[in-house]
Amino acid sequence: MSDRTFTLDEAQMLLPILESLLRQAIHGKKLIEDVDAELQETAHRVFLSGGMMLNVVHLARRKAEREKAIRRIKDALAEIDATGVQVKDLDIGLLDFPCKVEGEILLLCWKLGEPAIGHWHGTDEGFASRKPIDERIANAGKKRPK
To answer: How crowded is residue 8: how many other Cβ atoms within 10 Å of its Cβ?
Structure first.
């Protein structure tokens, strides 16, 4: 895990790129779930009928799509991780950005669909403990005019 921290402005600037990567990973996860359900249904039909003719080409194509989706997910998540941002929940699209505020590390918290980063929580807390960003956090890391 990276030791990188972000100001609110830095985190906001990364959102468009991270959102795109997150959507790729979520789309890949959905495809994997669809293929798994299809393969499970096919196996169930084969079991119930005691055997049957299968469209092997179709099934092989679907398995190949699944493998490509796994690779895309891994690549997208690795790219997000390389920035220092933490993926907390792929199902709802939840990202945390470590932020140093008055010597303490907090997590700026963003959920897919939110227009901007508007919440934070402590490192020992989660989504349910989110609090609105206040001036102290919004100004953390900014240079003060002399």
So the answer is: 22
Token couple for 87 = 């993926």
Any bridge partners for residue 89, and if so which?
A: 94
Distance of alpha carbon 46 from alpha carbon 25, whole angstroms: 31
Mean pLDDT, rounded, of the chain: 91
Q: How far apart (Å, rounded) are the C-alpha atoms in residues 74 and 69?
A: 9
The tokens describing 60, both together, are 């092989």
Indicate the burial class of 111 (C-beta count within 10 angstroms; 0-12, 13-18, 19 or more): middle
Q: What is the pTM of this model?
A: 0.84
Q: 1: closest CA among 88, 116, 118, 91?
A: 88
- The per-residue pLDDT for range 13-36, each reduced to its tens digit, is 999 999 999 999 999 999 999 999
**Which of 1-5, 48-52, 115-119 shows the lowest mean pLDDT across its residues?**
1-5
Question: Cα dihedral angle (98, 27, 23, 90), rounded to 10 degrees?
Answer: -20
Quote the CA–CA distance of 103 and 121 in Å, as a whole number.
Answer: 15
